[in-house]
Design a protein that fits this description.
16% strand, five-stranded mixed β-sheet, 497 residues, five-stranded antiparallel β-sheet, 11 helices, Beta-Lactamase, 12 strands, alpha+beta, Heat Shock Protein 90
Protein backbone atom coordinates (compact mmCIF):
# COMPACT_ATOMS: atom_id res chain seq x y z
CA UNK A 1 0.00 0.00 0.00
CA UNK A 2 1.30 3.41 -0.97
CA UNK A 3 -1.05 5.60 1.07
CA UNK A 4 -0.26 6.71 4.61
CA UNK A 5 -3.52 5.33 5.98
CA UNK A 6 -2.92 1.94 4.37
CA UNK A 7 0.65 1.65 5.55
CA UNK A 8 -0.29 2.89 9.01
CA UNK A 9 -2.97 0.23 9.19
CA UNK A 10 -0.58 -2.54 8.18
CA UNK A 11 2.19 -1.32 10.50
CA UNK A 12 -0.08 -1.02 13.51
CA UNK A 13 -1.65 -4.45 12.93
CA UNK A 14 1.77 -6.02 12.59
CA UNK A 15 2.94 -4.14 15.68
CA UNK A 16 -0.01 -5.38 17.71
CA UNK A 17 0.55 -8.92 16.50
CA UNK A 18 4.27 -8.76 17.27
CA UNK A 19 3.63 -7.22 20.69
CA UNK A 20 1.00 -9.76 21.66
CA UNK A 21 2.98 -12.67 20.25
CA UNK A 22 6.12 -11.47 21.99
CA UNK A 23 4.30 -11.25 25.29
CA UNK A 24 2.92 -14.75 24.78
CA UNK A 25 6.31 -16.20 23.91
CA UNK A 26 7.95 -14.38 26.79
CA UNK A 27 5.31 -15.57 29.21
CA UNK A 28 5.39 -19.15 27.96
CA UNK A 29 9.17 -19.39 28.17
CA UNK A 30 9.99 -17.18 31.11
CA UNK A 31 7.12 -18.25 33.38
CA UNK A 32 8.07 -21.92 33.13
CA UNK A 33 11.73 -21.16 33.73
CA UNK A 34 10.97 -18.93 36.73
CA UNK A 35 8.63 -21.55 38.16
CA UNK A 36 11.28 -24.23 37.91
CA UNK A 37 13.84 -21.93 39.55
CA UNK A 38 11.48 -21.26 42.43
CA UNK A 39 10.77 -24.97 42.86
CA UNK A 40 14.50 -25.72 42.91
CA UNK A 41 14.90 -23.08 45.57
CA UNK A 42 12.08 -24.59 47.64
CA UNK A 43 13.60 -28.08 47.38
CA UNK A 44 16.94 -26.71 48.55
CA UNK A 45 15.24 -25.12 51.57
CA UNK A 46 13.37 -28.33 52.44
CA UNK A 47 16.59 -30.34 52.11
CA UNK A 48 18.43 -27.91 54.40
CA UNK A 49 15.63 -28.27 56.94
CA UNK A 50 15.76 -32.06 56.79
CA UNK A 51 19.51 -32.01 57.44
CA UNK A 52 18.79 -30.40 60.81
CA UNK A 53 16.26 -33.10 61.78
CA UNK A 54 16.82 -36.52 63.36
CA UNK A 55 16.19 -38.59 60.24
CA UNK A 56 15.28 -41.97 61.87
CA UNK A 57 12.93 -40.31 64.35
CA UNK A 58 11.43 -38.15 61.62
CA UNK A 59 10.72 -41.18 59.38
CA UNK A 60 9.18 -43.11 62.30
CA UNK A 61 6.95 -40.17 63.24
CA UNK A 62 5.86 -39.49 59.66
CA UNK A 63 4.99 -43.18 59.12
CA UNK A 64 3.00 -43.16 62.36
CA UNK A 65 1.13 -40.03 61.34
CA UNK A 66 0.41 -41.43 57.91
CA UNK A 67 -1.02 -44.58 59.48
CA UNK A 68 -3.29 -42.47 61.73
CA UNK A 69 -4.47 -40.25 58.87
CA UNK A 70 -8.13 -39.32 58.91
CA UNK A 71 -10.48 -40.47 56.22
CA UNK A 72 -10.55 -36.96 54.77
CA UNK A 73 -7.35 -36.95 52.70
CA UNK A 74 -7.31 -33.14 52.59
CA UNK A 75 -7.10 -32.79 56.33
CA UNK A 76 -3.59 -31.83 57.40
CA UNK A 77 -2.03 -33.25 60.55
CA UNK A 78 -0.51 -30.42 62.56
CA UNK A 79 2.38 -32.54 63.87
CA UNK A 80 3.57 -33.59 60.43
CA UNK A 81 6.68 -31.91 59.01
CA UNK A 82 6.43 -33.32 55.49
CA UNK A 83 2.69 -33.31 54.85
CA UNK A 84 2.44 -29.55 54.03
CA UNK A 85 5.12 -30.02 51.37
CA UNK A 86 3.50 -33.19 50.07
CA UNK A 87 0.24 -31.28 49.64
CA UNK A 88 2.23 -28.92 47.39
CA UNK A 89 3.11 -31.82 45.10
CA UNK A 90 6.51 -32.66 46.68
CA UNK A 91 7.40 -36.33 47.01
CA UNK A 92 9.89 -37.76 49.54
CA UNK A 93 11.82 -41.01 49.78
CA UNK A 94 14.26 -41.55 52.63
CA UNK A 95 16.51 -44.63 52.78
CA UNK A 96 19.08 -45.91 55.26
CA UNK A 97 22.73 -46.79 54.63
CA UNK A 98 21.72 -50.20 53.20
CA UNK A 99 19.37 -48.33 50.86
CA UNK A 100 16.33 -49.73 52.64
CA UNK A 101 13.27 -47.55 52.40
CA UNK A 102 12.51 -45.71 55.68
CA UNK A 103 9.81 -43.39 54.37
CA UNK A 104 7.97 -42.74 51.09
CA UNK A 105 5.25 -40.24 50.31
CA UNK A 106 3.21 -42.82 48.38
CA UNK A 107 3.62 -46.26 49.90
CA UNK A 108 2.96 -48.97 47.36
CA UNK A 109 4.43 -52.23 46.13
CA UNK A 110 6.63 -50.26 43.76
CA UNK A 111 8.36 -48.64 46.68
CA UNK A 112 9.79 -51.96 47.79
CA UNK A 113 13.18 -52.13 46.08
CA UNK A 114 14.15 -55.54 47.48
CA UNK A 115 14.06 -56.95 43.98
CA UNK A 116 16.83 -54.60 42.85
CA UNK A 117 20.22 -56.10 42.17
CA UNK A 118 23.34 -54.90 43.95
CA UNK A 119 24.56 -53.25 40.76
CA UNK A 120 21.28 -51.39 40.37
CA UNK A 121 21.44 -50.22 43.98
CA UNK A 122 25.04 -49.06 43.53
CA UNK A 123 24.15 -47.05 40.42
CA UNK A 124 21.29 -45.35 42.28
CA UNK A 125 23.49 -44.53 45.26
CA UNK A 126 26.09 -42.92 42.96
CA UNK A 127 23.52 -40.26 42.06
CA UNK A 128 23.31 -39.02 45.66
CA UNK A 129 25.74 -36.45 47.03
CA UNK A 130 26.32 -34.35 50.09
CA UNK A 131 25.49 -30.64 49.89
CA UNK A 132 23.25 -31.50 46.96
CA UNK A 133 21.34 -28.90 44.94
CA UNK A 134 17.98 -29.28 43.25
CA UNK A 135 17.96 -29.45 39.44
CA UNK A 136 15.53 -29.99 36.61
CA UNK A 137 15.50 -33.30 34.77
CA UNK A 138 13.87 -33.44 31.37
CA UNK A 139 11.93 -36.55 30.46
CA UNK A 140 10.31 -37.67 27.25
CA UNK A 141 6.91 -36.08 27.80
CA UNK A 142 7.40 -33.94 30.88
CA UNK A 143 10.03 -33.38 33.52
CA UNK A 144 10.60 -32.97 37.20
CA UNK A 145 12.62 -31.03 39.76
CA UNK A 146 14.72 -33.47 41.77
CA UNK A 147 17.21 -33.35 44.65
CA UNK A 148 19.27 -36.38 45.71
CA UNK A 149 21.09 -35.65 48.95
CA UNK A 150 22.98 -37.45 51.68
CA UNK A 151 22.61 -36.78 55.41
CA UNK A 152 25.23 -38.18 57.80
CA UNK A 153 24.05 -38.57 61.40
CA UNK A 154 25.77 -40.54 64.15
CA UNK A 155 28.08 -42.15 61.59
CA UNK A 156 25.12 -43.37 59.51
CA UNK A 157 24.26 -42.24 56.00
CA UNK A 158 20.70 -41.52 54.94
CA UNK A 159 19.71 -41.03 51.30
CA UNK A 160 17.07 -38.36 50.75
CA UNK A 161 15.17 -38.06 47.46
CA UNK A 162 12.84 -35.07 46.95
CA UNK A 163 10.95 -34.65 43.65
CA UNK A 164 8.24 -32.51 42.15
CA UNK A 165 6.67 -33.00 38.72
CA UNK A 166 6.45 -30.07 36.27
CA UNK A 167 3.22 -31.44 34.80
CA UNK A 168 1.11 -28.70 36.43
CA UNK A 169 3.14 -25.81 35.03
CA UNK A 170 3.19 -27.44 31.60
CA UNK A 171 -0.58 -27.57 31.56
CA UNK A 172 -0.78 -23.97 32.80
CA UNK A 173 1.56 -22.82 30.04
CA UNK A 174 -0.53 -24.52 27.38
CA UNK A 175 -3.65 -22.87 28.76
CA UNK A 176 -1.92 -19.46 28.78
CA UNK A 177 -0.97 -19.90 25.12
CA UNK A 178 -4.59 -20.51 24.16
CA UNK A 179 -5.75 -17.47 26.14
CA UNK A 180 -3.07 -15.28 24.59
CA UNK A 181 -4.11 -16.42 21.12
CA UNK A 182 -7.63 -15.17 21.81
CA UNK A 183 -6.25 -11.90 23.21
CA UNK A 184 -4.10 -11.40 20.09
CA UNK A 185 -7.10 -11.96 17.84
CA UNK A 186 -9.14 -9.42 19.85
CA UNK A 187 -6.27 -6.90 19.70
CA UNK A 188 -5.99 -7.28 15.94
CA UNK A 189 -9.70 -6.74 15.33
CA UNK A 190 -10.01 -3.80 17.71
CA UNK A 191 -6.71 -2.30 16.58
CA UNK A 192 -7.66 -2.54 12.92
CA UNK A 193 -10.87 -0.60 13.54
CA UNK A 194 -9.08 2.11 15.56
CA UNK A 195 -6.17 2.49 13.16
CA UNK A 196 -8.47 2.65 10.13
CA UNK A 197 -10.43 5.50 11.71
CA UNK A 198 -7.23 7.27 12.76
CA UNK A 199 -5.64 6.87 9.34
CA UNK A 200 -8.53 8.53 7.56
CA UNK A 201 -8.31 11.55 9.86
CA UNK A 202 -4.56 11.86 9.25
CA UNK A 203 -4.64 11.14 5.53
CA UNK A 204 -6.81 14.06 4.41
CA UNK A 205 -4.70 16.92 5.86
CA UNK A 206 -1.51 15.16 4.73
CA UNK A 207 -2.83 14.96 1.17
CA UNK A 208 -3.66 18.66 1.31
CA UNK A 209 -0.15 19.43 2.57
CA UNK A 210 1.33 17.35 -0.27
CA UNK A 211 -0.71 19.28 -2.83
CA UNK A 212 0.50 22.63 -1.46
CA UNK A 213 4.10 21.34 -1.39
CA UNK A 214 3.86 20.42 -5.08
CA UNK A 215 2.76 23.97 -5.83
CA UNK A 216 5.72 25.33 -3.87
CA UNK A 217 7.99 23.09 -5.92
CA UNK A 218 6.53 24.76 -9.02
CA UNK A 219 7.30 28.19 -7.47
CA UNK A 220 3.63 28.85 -6.76
CA UNK A 221 3.43 30.33 -3.27
CA UNK A 222 -0.19 31.46 -3.43
CA UNK A 223 -1.80 28.71 -1.30
CA UNK A 224 -1.24 27.87 2.36
CA UNK A 225 -1.63 24.64 4.35
CA UNK A 226 -4.37 24.48 7.00
CA UNK A 227 -3.02 24.98 10.52
CA UNK A 228 -6.25 24.15 12.41
CA UNK A 229 -6.62 20.35 12.16
CA UNK A 230 -7.40 18.19 15.20
CA UNK A 231 -3.83 16.86 15.28
CA UNK A 232 -1.07 19.00 16.78
CA UNK A 233 1.65 17.35 14.68
CA UNK A 234 -0.22 18.12 11.44
CA UNK A 235 -0.78 21.69 12.59
CA UNK A 236 2.97 22.00 13.21
CA UNK A 237 3.59 20.50 9.76
CA UNK A 238 1.28 23.09 8.22
CA UNK A 239 3.05 25.90 10.06
CA UNK A 240 6.42 24.57 8.91
CA UNK A 241 5.34 24.29 5.26
CA UNK A 242 3.88 27.79 5.30
CA UNK A 243 7.06 29.17 6.86
CA UNK A 244 9.07 27.27 4.28
CA UNK A 245 6.99 28.84 1.52
CA UNK A 246 7.73 32.31 2.91
CA UNK A 247 11.42 31.64 3.41
CA UNK A 248 12.21 29.95 0.10
CA UNK A 249 11.75 33.24 -1.72
CA UNK A 250 14.11 34.91 0.74
CA UNK A 251 16.61 32.05 0.41
CA UNK A 252 16.72 32.46 -3.34
CA UNK A 253 17.67 36.10 -2.93
CA UNK A 254 20.15 35.25 -0.17
CA UNK A 255 21.73 32.59 -2.36
CA UNK A 256 22.80 35.21 -4.86
CA UNK A 257 24.33 37.22 -2.02
CA UNK A 258 26.15 34.14 -0.68
CA UNK A 259 27.53 33.43 -4.13
CA UNK A 260 29.03 36.88 -4.26
CA UNK A 261 30.52 36.43 -0.79
CA UNK A 262 31.92 33.06 -1.83
CA UNK A 263 33.58 34.64 -4.80
CA UNK A 264 35.15 37.23 -2.51
CA UNK A 265 36.32 34.50 -0.13
CA UNK A 266 37.87 32.54 -2.99
CA UNK A 267 39.57 35.70 -4.14
CA UNK A 268 40.91 36.27 -0.64
CA UNK A 269 42.20 32.70 -0.50
CA UNK A 270 43.94 33.25 -3.82
CA UNK A 271 45.53 36.40 -2.44
CA UNK A 272 46.67 34.49 0.63
CA UNK A 273 48.24 31.83 -1.56
CA UNK A 274 50.07 34.57 -3.41
CA UNK A 275 51.34 35.83 -0.06
CA UNK A 276 52.60 32.34 0.73
CA UNK A 277 54.42 32.05 -2.56
CA UNK A 278 55.87 35.51 -2.15
CA UNK A 279 57.05 34.63 1.35
CA UNK A 280 58.75 31.44 0.15
CA UNK A 281 60.56 33.46 -2.50
CA UNK A 282 61.53 36.07 0.08
CA UNK A 283 62.78 33.43 2.49
CA UNK A 284 64.82 31.82 -0.27
CA UNK A 285 66.38 35.16 -1.06
CA UNK A 286 66.89 36.06 2.59
CA UNK A 287 68.61 32.76 3.33
CA UNK A 288 70.99 33.19 0.41
CA UNK A 289 72.17 36.55 1.70
CA UNK A 290 73.15 35.49 5.25
CA UNK A 291 74.67 32.28 3.92
CA UNK A 292 76.78 34.28 1.51
CA UNK A 293 77.82 36.65 4.31
CA UNK A 294 78.68 33.76 6.62
CA UNK A 295 80.70 32.11 3.85
CA UNK A 296 82.62 35.33 3.27
CA UNK A 297 83.24 35.87 6.98
CA UNK A 298 84.55 32.32 7.39
CA UNK A 299 86.94 32.84 4.47
CA UNK A 300 88.14 36.09 6.01
CA UNK A 301 88.86 34.32 9.29
CA UNK A 302 91.60 32.30 7.61
CA UNK A 303 93.43 35.43 6.38
CA UNK A 304 92.75 37.83 9.28
CA UNK A 305 95.98 39.23 10.73
CA UNK A 306 94.90 39.94 14.32
CA UNK A 307 92.44 38.72 16.95
CA UNK A 308 90.29 41.85 16.79
CA UNK A 309 89.49 41.28 13.11
CA UNK A 310 88.79 37.61 13.72
CA UNK A 311 86.37 38.53 16.55
CA UNK A 312 84.56 40.98 14.27
CA UNK A 313 84.14 38.31 11.59
CA UNK A 314 82.92 35.80 14.18
CA UNK A 315 80.39 38.26 15.64
CA UNK A 316 79.10 39.12 12.17
CA UNK A 317 78.68 35.44 11.29
CA UNK A 318 76.89 34.75 14.57
CA UNK A 319 74.46 37.63 13.92
CA UNK A 320 73.56 36.13 10.55
CA UNK A 321 73.16 32.66 12.07
CA UNK A 322 70.84 34.11 14.72
CA UNK A 323 68.79 35.84 12.04
CA UNK A 324 68.38 32.60 10.09
CA UNK A 325 67.53 30.71 13.27
CA UNK A 326 64.74 33.15 14.17
CA UNK A 327 63.33 32.99 10.64
CA UNK A 328 63.34 29.18 10.55
CA UNK A 329 61.86 28.97 14.08
CA UNK A 330 58.96 31.13 12.97
CA UNK A 331 58.39 28.94 9.91
CA UNK A 332 58.43 25.77 12.04
CA UNK A 333 56.02 27.35 14.53
CA UNK A 334 53.53 28.10 11.74
CA UNK A 335 53.89 24.60 10.30
CA UNK A 336 53.26 22.98 13.69
CA UNK A 337 50.16 25.09 14.31
CA UNK A 338 48.60 24.58 10.87
CA UNK A 339 49.30 20.84 10.66
CA UNK A 340 48.27 20.08 14.26
CA UNK A 341 51.67 18.52 15.03
CA UNK A 342 52.46 20.50 18.15
CA UNK A 343 50.72 19.25 21.32
CA UNK A 344 51.09 21.98 23.90
CA UNK A 345 51.58 20.99 27.58
CA UNK A 346 49.28 23.16 29.71
CA UNK A 347 49.71 24.11 33.37
CA UNK A 348 48.35 26.76 35.78
CA UNK A 349 50.40 29.96 35.63
CA UNK A 350 50.22 33.70 36.30
CA UNK A 351 50.07 35.73 33.08
CA UNK A 352 51.13 38.93 34.87
CA UNK A 353 54.43 37.29 35.90
CA UNK A 354 55.15 36.23 32.30
CA UNK A 355 54.30 39.73 31.05
CA UNK A 356 56.54 41.34 33.68
CA UNK A 357 59.50 39.17 32.67
CA UNK A 358 58.99 39.90 28.96
CA UNK A 359 58.72 43.66 29.55
CA UNK A 360 61.92 43.60 31.63
CA UNK A 361 63.75 41.72 28.86
CA UNK A 362 62.64 44.24 26.24
CA UNK A 363 63.39 47.34 28.33
CA UNK A 364 67.04 47.43 27.20
CA UNK A 365 66.03 47.18 23.53
CA UNK A 366 63.47 49.97 23.97
CA UNK A 367 66.01 52.14 25.75
CA UNK A 368 68.25 52.16 22.64
CA UNK A 369 65.59 54.24 20.88
CA UNK A 370 64.72 56.24 23.99
CA UNK A 371 61.32 54.54 24.25
CA UNK A 372 59.92 54.16 27.75
CA UNK A 373 57.80 51.08 28.41
CA UNK A 374 55.25 50.96 31.22
CA UNK A 375 53.42 47.86 32.55
CA UNK A 376 50.17 48.11 34.51
CA UNK A 377 49.19 44.93 36.34
CA UNK A 378 46.06 43.79 38.15
CA UNK A 379 45.75 40.86 40.60
CA UNK A 380 44.13 37.48 39.90
CA UNK A 381 45.62 36.79 36.45
CA UNK A 382 45.81 33.00 36.71
CA UNK A 383 45.29 31.02 33.47
CA UNK A 384 45.95 27.50 32.25
CA UNK A 385 48.42 27.54 29.40
CA UNK A 386 51.88 26.99 27.99
CA UNK A 387 54.33 29.47 29.47
CA UNK A 388 56.78 29.44 26.54
CA UNK A 389 54.14 30.08 23.89
CA UNK A 390 52.39 32.78 25.90
CA UNK A 391 55.79 34.45 26.40
CA UNK A 392 56.30 34.27 22.62
CA UNK A 393 52.89 35.90 22.00
CA UNK A 394 53.64 38.73 24.45
CA UNK A 395 57.11 39.20 22.94
CA UNK A 396 55.66 39.45 19.43
CA UNK A 397 53.32 42.22 20.59
CA UNK A 398 56.24 44.05 22.24
CA UNK A 399 58.45 43.63 19.16
CA UNK A 400 55.62 44.94 16.99
CA UNK A 401 55.36 48.02 19.23
CA UNK A 402 59.15 48.49 19.12
CA UNK A 403 59.16 48.49 15.31
CA UNK A 404 56.38 51.05 14.90
CA UNK A 405 56.67 53.31 17.98
CA UNK A 406 58.48 56.62 17.31
CA UNK A 407 61.52 57.57 19.33
CA UNK A 408 61.01 59.40 22.65
CA UNK A 409 57.52 57.87 23.02
CA UNK A 410 55.84 55.68 25.66
CA UNK A 411 54.65 52.10 25.11
CA UNK A 412 51.92 51.07 27.57
CA UNK A 413 51.36 47.41 28.39
CA UNK A 414 48.47 46.14 30.51
CA UNK A 415 47.57 42.76 32.02
CA UNK A 416 44.42 42.21 34.08
CA UNK A 417 41.15 40.36 34.40
CA UNK A 418 38.08 41.29 32.37
CA UNK A 419 35.12 39.03 33.20
CA UNK A 420 36.04 35.43 32.47
CA UNK A 421 39.23 36.36 30.58
CA UNK A 422 42.69 37.63 31.43
CA UNK A 423 43.61 40.42 28.96
CA UNK A 424 47.08 41.46 27.80
CA UNK A 425 47.35 44.59 25.64
CA UNK A 426 50.11 46.81 24.24
CA UNK A 427 49.59 50.38 23.05
CA UNK A 428 52.12 52.37 21.05
CA UNK A 429 52.04 55.78 19.42
CA UNK A 430 52.41 55.85 15.68
CA UNK A 431 50.51 55.48 12.45
CA UNK A 432 47.01 53.95 12.64
CA UNK A 433 46.26 50.68 10.82
CA UNK A 434 44.50 51.14 7.49
CA UNK A 435 40.92 49.82 7.51
CA UNK A 436 41.63 47.50 4.60
CA UNK A 437 44.47 45.87 6.57
CA UNK A 438 42.70 45.29 9.94
CA UNK A 439 41.16 41.90 9.06
CA UNK A 440 44.12 40.72 6.99
CA UNK A 441 46.79 41.74 9.47
CA UNK A 442 46.39 38.49 11.44
CA UNK A 443 46.91 36.32 8.33
CA UNK A 444 50.22 34.56 7.88
CA UNK A 445 52.79 36.25 5.62
CA UNK A 446 50.76 39.47 5.44
CA UNK A 447 52.41 42.86 5.99
CA UNK A 448 50.36 45.99 6.52
CA UNK A 449 50.90 49.21 4.61
CA UNK A 450 52.26 51.12 7.63
CA UNK A 451 56.02 51.57 7.59
CA UNK A 452 58.09 51.20 10.73
CA UNK A 453 61.71 51.60 11.56
CA UNK A 454 62.55 47.88 11.09
CA UNK A 455 59.62 46.74 8.97
CA UNK A 456 61.91 45.91 6.12
CA UNK A 457 63.26 42.94 8.12
CA UNK A 458 59.86 41.56 9.13
CA UNK A 459 58.27 38.46 7.61
CA UNK A 460 54.61 39.04 8.37
CA UNK A 461 54.57 36.11 10.81
CA UNK A 462 54.47 37.78 14.23
CA UNK A 463 50.76 38.56 14.56
CA UNK A 464 49.76 35.30 12.89
CA UNK A 465 51.80 33.39 15.49
CA UNK A 466 50.05 35.37 18.24
CA UNK A 467 46.65 34.45 16.79
CA UNK A 468 47.63 30.77 16.56
CA UNK A 469 48.92 30.62 20.15
CA UNK A 470 45.87 32.38 21.56
CA UNK A 471 43.55 30.05 19.62
CA UNK A 472 45.35 27.04 21.10
CA UNK A 473 44.48 28.44 24.53
CA UNK A 474 40.81 28.96 23.67
CA UNK A 475 41.07 32.77 23.56
CA UNK A 476 40.81 35.58 21.03
CA UNK A 477 42.79 38.60 19.90
CA UNK A 478 42.27 41.90 18.11
CA UNK A 479 43.43 45.46 17.63
CA UNK A 480 41.92 48.92 17.98
CA UNK A 481 43.00 52.19 16.39
CA UNK A 482 43.35 54.92 18.99
CA UNK A 483 43.61 58.67 18.48
CA UNK A 484 47.42 58.74 18.32
CA UNK A 485 48.33 55.10 17.83
CA UNK A 486 47.27 51.46 17.91
CA UNK A 487 46.44 49.00 20.71
CA UNK A 488 46.85 45.23 20.19
CA UNK A 489 45.29 42.79 22.69
CA UNK A 490 44.56 39.15 23.35
CA UNK A 491 42.43 37.37 26.00
CA UNK A 492 42.89 33.93 27.64
CA UNK A 493 40.16 32.20 29.71
CA UNK A 494 40.72 32.52 33.45
CA UNK A 495 41.79 29.46 35.39
CA UNK A 496 38.72 27.59 36.67
CA UNK A 497 38.91 27.36 40.45
Amino acid sequence: MKTISGRLLVVMVLLLAALSGGIGILYSGASRRLYIQEQCKMLDEVYARLLSEDIPALCEEENRIKGMAAEDEWEEVSDSLLEPYENNNLRFRIRDEQFRLLYATNKSKETDDSSLSANQVRKRIEKYEENARAKYEKKEYSGRVVLRGISVQDGQKYYILITQSSFVIDRGTDYARRVLFLVIAAFLVFGTICVRTLAKGIGRPVENAARVARKIADKDFSEKVSETTQYQELNELGVSINEMSDQIQSYVRDLETYNRLLQKDNQRRAELEQHRKRFVNNVSHELKTPLAIISGQVEMLSIAQNDEKRQQYCDSALEEVQRMNEMLSSMLQIFSVEEGIEELPMEPLELDAIAETAVRDFSVLFAKRRIRIELKKQPDCAVKGNAENLRRAISNFLMNAYRYAPEDSVVRAFVGRNGKYVIFSVYNDGERIAEKDIDKLWDSFYKGSAVGRENESGTGLGLYIVKSIVSQHGGGCGLENKENGVEFWFGIPCLQE
